[in-house]
Design goal:
Shape: globular
Radius of gyration: 18 Å
Structural class: mainly alpha
Number of strands: 0
Oligomer: single chain
Helix content: 55-70%
Number of helices: 14
Amino acid sequence: MKRGALEGTLIGIAIGDALGVPVEFRKRSELQANPVTDFTGFGTHDQPPGTWSDDTSLTLCLVEALLDGLDYGRIAQKFVSWRYNGYMTAHGETFDIGNATAQAIFRLRAGCEPTLAGDLDEHANGNGSLMRIAPIAFFTSSMELETRRRIVFDVAGITHGHPRSKFGCWLFTEFLRNIARGQSKEEALSVAHASIQSWVDAQGPGITEWIHFARCTPLIQDLPMEEIKSTGYVVHTLEASLWCFLRSETFADAVLAAVNLGDDTDTTGAVAGAMAGAFYTTSTIPQRWIDQLAQMQMIRSLAERFCRVIVACEQSENQP
């Protein structure tokens, strides 16, 4: 694993999220005319600068749960604690929760089997599982493809049960895994897409949801902005984040481009931030953002602990 990729991913998610929180739901035309260039505050959610939202909270809940191994019940408990007790939030307050996620966590609190809590309806394909799934790319990095797929599908299903959301999460985690292993942007995405395509082909004609991610290849960076949407739909979020990241030359380029697409600014910023953080690493992130980010030391500490877990897993997998 490339040094600094994991920490860069977690901090990148939080920074992209925090940049987008104050302007969430703003129209693209408004942000293109008056773009975000730095942390701001007291906008859409009336939060101080550097405040991150549900994207980062649920990501960090997942990381903390994985420190003691994969336990879906433990992940579910932390999600419930976040939703109802303000656990793992920037300032002790839960805000900005999607409908599908809220309903799933309600089911979790009522005792639903964790991996079955996510809504199966086609209209429940928001980006709420995509925005928090990045840690799984590292946790499963040394595992076989089928094991990686199964775990991604199960963790995604805690809040989003439809296969489309699960495939989006799988492509994202495969892409992150390849970046963290040192591949170029284009190679990482091409290999990820080809690996999943091969799996789909081997399953026969019954797998139909994968077709929705046909544009998620390196060629997406050549599309004009007008063909990129940045709504809360899982396909739109993944496409928009890839478009911004593939066209970027720095971490700041990627996350600011993502936020300034408008609409679901915090999640597009968070997903693009994960990609850019893994690729460019924390050392390239503007220091003023590091200094202003809420709970920065907590995030860094979690990243260090999680990295030790991943290294131990990799060493265990490599032993004869």
